[in-house]
Amino acid sequence: MEVILLESFDKLGQIGDVVKVKNGFARNYLIPNKKALRANKANKEIFQNIKSDLIEKNKKFIDESKAILKKIENKEIVFIRNASDNGQLYGSVSPKDISNYFLENKLNVKPSNINLHSSIKKIGIYDLNIKLHAEVGCSLKINVAVSEEAAKQQKLEIEKESKKAKEIIPNSNVEKTSDEVKKIVDKNKDNIPNKDALDTNKKTEPNTKEKTPEFDSLQKKESNPKDNSEKIRKKAEINKKEDNTTN
Question: Which of 11, 89, 98, 150 has the highest CB neighbour count under 10 A?
Fold first, then answer.
């Protein structure tokens, strides 16, 4: 289904764009929540009448989102939770819990604005993304621990690991992320010999062992079956003559 966007969406489009989306997404989410209109002639005329208001409203929302972002982008989020001896939480930390945390600090961040990279069911430090608008967002870390002291200890350990990771790459002021490292490996993978190539090299490697005269002589004897059969024949004739003489 083709729709006219009334809001800007990350990876989908900006206000006024006509985009093609799945029917279910349009009927169940975009249209009921007044985030889009069906792309027909009548709605295109309606959009032209409300376009300026939508753009002004969007600009105001972006400014409000940026103001909230400034308050949270360097904020340290700490959750104190009960956990078992192996670190398993009695429950979990959800986007709704994080949203309530922000509301307690008078910051309007909805659960739908929060994207966790993985479910939080154990103590530790986790990454999360805050997306207040298609053009406004940031990455944060949430520290989940059984006490304030344990949270500080976890933070120190992470900082030590990060420092060690930077020291692995000498003479570089740029921190290599896992994606960047992967790109370097992929770029140079053609220069890395594979196992089959190594095995082939082993098979074709010449024999460099020094051959002695005795070895050459033995090899000649083994490689000349005619001489061996001649000796056997002569020996058989001698044995036959000896038998005749005895008789």
Answer: 98
